Amino acid sequence: xxxxxxxxxxxxxxxxxxxxxxxxxxxxxxxxxxxxxxxxxxxxxxxxxxxxxxxxxxxxxxxxxxxxxxxxxxxxxxxxxxxxxxxxxxxxxxxxxxxxxxxxxxxxxxxxxxxxxxxxxxxxxxxxxxxxx
Amino acid sequence: xxxxxxxxxxxxxxxxxxxxxxxxxxxxxxxxxxxxxxxxxxxxxxxxxxxxxxxxxxxxxxxxxxxxxxxxxxxxxxxxxxxxxxxxxxxxxxxxxxxxxxxxxxxxxxxxxxxxxxxxxxxxxxxxxxxxxxxxxxxxxxxxxxxxxxxxxxxxxxxxxxxxxxxxxxxxxxxxxxx
Lengths: 133, 179
Hints:
Chain A is α/β, with parallel strands linked by helices. Chain A is built from five helices and five strands; from the N terminus they run E-H-E-H-E-H-E-H-E-H.
């Protein structure tokens, strides 16, 4: 059974780009337009990995990560942030919230797929010690 | 010399009020123009992205229809070639997304002072440093913040461009950091 990825971005074109890349590699992709929508979905369905933008209306990606890490089902789920934000301060916030990794946009499709494969295969120790929201 | 509709010379306060009103309208005009441009191009880029998804689906179906024994080498070459082109388009289209983010931040940079100075009385009381902080807080790219800080420090355009060039060379799109 294919792994289910929750792709979260307020930009519809970015969601399409991520969707095309991941579906082409055989992943099942569910899209959400912001952190709130993603959290709602994640509470009701199981997800193997979350790939979220940082700057979004209603709920940003770092807050989403913190909320997900507080849910028992998401203690060990890989949570990646994909963003144009590259400041070390923001990265630190993401890490403290419990994110597994931080990737700078624009992504290269092959690189994104390799990262997902690596993280999903469990070769990366998933950070589960984030702060509760 | 400025005057009102009756030909009377404007006082200092009236002149300031006229300038503030004009600036407010100008800022709102910029906001409206950016909104229209982003809305129009977003719809088109969305269509491109949908076409790309359709092409990817078609390639997958075509690949599945190829004989499994590897006899159709030209068919497999075609699949590889189309996939490489799709990847190139995906990478290129993300720069559009980055452009839209920047334009959205420019929009905020116009809308925030426009809202704060909507009334001339409010304009007089507006805390300019607070407005600048709000504008800067919207930025999501290091480049944007550097440009903003350079501008606010009144540095010359050449210095600013030089610093931005160094930043671009140092930045690494696609860079991954696993925690």
